[in-house]
Structure formats: C-alpha cells, structure tokens
Write a structure and sequence with these properties.
methyltransferase; TIM Barrel; binds iron/sulfur cluster; alpha/beta; 12 helices; nine-stranded mixed sheet; 18% strand; 344 residues; single chain; elongated; 4Fe-4S; DNA polymerase, domain 1
C-alpha cells in the first residue's frame, strides 16, 4: 500500500470513511427504478419558504400586502432563528402569519423519524418526506483541538439511486424520485437541530447521484451558501460521473470541491464496480475533471473505496498512480475503507 500512500495528498476525510454513499442506505423505495423524465423531476417547492432567498421572501411579503422588511424578518426567522412553524413566527403580526397559512405556505422543515448514534459521535438521521418516503442523512462531528468543532452534513440528493454501483445499498434499492432543494437544505437544518451546533461542511455523498438532480442541487447549494451561510469551499459535490454534467457544473465556477467516485484505476474494472461507467469512459471523465480544475482552480478529489480483493492490490495502486501522474497538483485522493451496509 506504500504506492497508494504516495498518491494521497490529503488525509482521508472523516466524511467519506463511511463509503461513497456515506449513509449505507437501506431504506426501501416504494417504486422500482424508472428513469423516465417524470420520475426524475424534482418535487416543486410550491408554497415552501425554506430554500427561498431574502429577495424572494421580500417579494412574497409585498405580494401579501406587507412591507418588504417583513420578508427580511421571514429570512431571519427561517435561517437564523431556525423556527419550524409559521405559527411560531411570533415577531410577525398575527394577520401576516394567518395570510401565509391561508395561502398554503409552510416552512418546509422535515420531521426527523429516527436517529442512530455511533460510538464516534456520528449520527444517522432517518427523515420522513411529505409523501412519506424516507431518506437518510448523516452528521459527522470532528473535534478540533485548535478550534471549534467541525460538523459535516452528508446529504442525500435523491430518494434511492438509479445507478446501481455494486457495493452500494442505495443502488440496490432502486430509485424513487429526485429531492427538491428544500428537502436537501432541510437535511442540513435537521442535523443542526440534533447537534445543536452549526453545520460547517456539507458533502453531497448520501443517497442518490447529485449530477442527476443538478437543478435542485445547485438551488440547495445557493441557499446553503447565501442563506444558511456555509462557505462554498466547505461544500463538496460528489459524483460517479454523468456525461456532460461536470462541464456544466464547471460553468457555474463554484468554489466548491468536485469529488469523483473513481474506485478503479482502469475502465474495465470500473465498469464492474460502477455499471454507469459504460456510458462515460474513464478517459473522458479525467479530461472533464482537468477542464473543471482549469475553469475553477479548485482541486478535484478522487474517492477510492477499497474493496477487498477487487481493487486493492498493488497493481491497482501502480495503475492509479500512473493515471494521476499527468494530473499535476490539482487533485487529491481519498482512500475509503469500505464498510458493509448496515440497516438502521
Ligand atoms: S451513484 Fe448511486 S448507486 Fe452509486 S454509490 Fe452513489 S448512491 Fe450508490
């Protein structure tokens, strides 16, 4: 494994030690895989306040006959005070609260159905969506001797996943639907609620492939950055690779980290672990990642789950080193000790 160590340019992130789908999800979706355009469509955030910008909230207040500063107050209550119900917006006039409720508005916070805490303090949350589907999200606290605790939220972007990677329980369970932006932001706020601490980092490494739900992921990214006030550099979007999406993401010039779930140093082995790799050759992914780095100046992170006897031999390490040799300094590798999936 010495060679593998040579290609690591950063310590293995705590956040991804739990595997690419860091949730090891075991929730059974109600519908089987169907990647039709309708099943992929995110739920509309109709009448949900969570996810709206300050400007949008100001416009809403004005539309309901209030002065625009009431929108600022709404923003403060939702994102700073983290109030979960409109009736508890006691700083607002009762008439405004009534108008919001009568117009069908809700805050859109998600109820926590169950939590499981691991010995290291990591907490898995099972969250119930409005349509009774369940998703998992994980809060990972890291005590830092030099500063305040870091709290990473590992969030889901879909209910299930259509990509069926060989080692992933989520993939085996099939795909139900995309999450809307408020359902993604809601996971972060749920973790803050459990830990009573601000989330400092967000990784899109939970259920689902973020690049198959890029619209909601980008909307959630905006909200997490601008409204929840999590720095762009503290946000990581992880993908196994979906054709044409890395270029698209690069065009937004976000200062966030792109993480590629590589898991193999060659195309043949990768296809056996990540079936969707057939439609996106390794060479093309590496080229798109290089372009992403050039476009954003952000280092790309390559994730490599160590699957015993499959991709963890010395020859794989040599091949991985060769693959990354021409890359230069704009990458790092996370070696992920693979853990079998456990139900919560
Ligand atoms: S892309 Fe889907 S199937 Fe593959 S590891 Fe991620 S969640 Fe699992």
């Amino acid at each position: 494994m010495t060679l593998l160590r040579q290609v690591i340019s950063a310590p293995v992130a705590h956040a991804v030690v739990l595997s690419r789908s860091c949730l090891a999800v075991s929730v059974t979706p109600r519908r089987k895989l169907s990647v039709s355009s309708s099943s992929r469509a995110p739920r509309v955030d109709a009448n949900v306040l969570l996810g709206m910008s300050e400007q949008e909230l100001q416009k809403l207040a004005v539309d309901l006959g209030q002065q625009s500063y009431r929108g600022k107050q709404l923003h403060h209550l939702i994102y700073k005070r983290k109030v979960k119900e409109i009736e508890n917006f006691i700083q607002l006039p009762q008439s405004f609260r009534n108008d919001l409720q009568e117009a069908g508005w809700t805050v859109g916070r998600l109820p926590i159905f169950r939590t499981v805490t691991a010995a290291d303090g990591t907490v898995k949350l099972l969250i119930k969506l409005e349509d009774n589907r369940l998703i998992e999200t994980v809060g990972i606290p890291v005590e830092d001797e030099k500063g305040p605790m870091r709290l990473t939220a590992c969030v889901s972007s879909q209910v299930g996943c259509p990509l069926r990677c060989s080692f992933c329980a989520t993939g085996k369970g099939g795909f139900s639907r995309n999450l809307s932006s408020h359902e993604i932001v809601g996971q972060v706020l749920a973790i803050e609620e459990i830990f009573k601490h601000r989330v400092t980092n967000v990784v899109f490494m939970g259920m689902g492939e973020p690049m198959l739900n890029l619209k909601s992921v980008l909307e959630a990214h905006r909200c997490l950055n601008k409204d929840v006030q999590i720095g762009q550099r503290m946000i990581t979007i992880s993908t196994v690779g979906v054709p044409n999406t890395i270029k698209k993401l690069a065009s937004y010039k976000l200062q966030s980290t792109l993480a590629i779930s590589l898991h193999a140093p060659n195309q043949k082995l990768r296809e056996s672990i990540v079936p969707s790799a057939k439609s996106y050759p390794l060479e093309a992914i590496m080229k798109d990642c290089r372009d992403y780095f050039q476009e954003t100046s952000r280092r790309v992170s390559f994730e490599y789950a160590l699957l015993a006897g499959v991709n963890d031999q010395v020859e794989h390490a040599v091949e991985l080193a060769e693959l990354l040799h021409e890359w230069g300094r704009g990458h790092h590798v996370n070696l992920i000790p693979f853990q079998s999936n456990r139900r919560i």
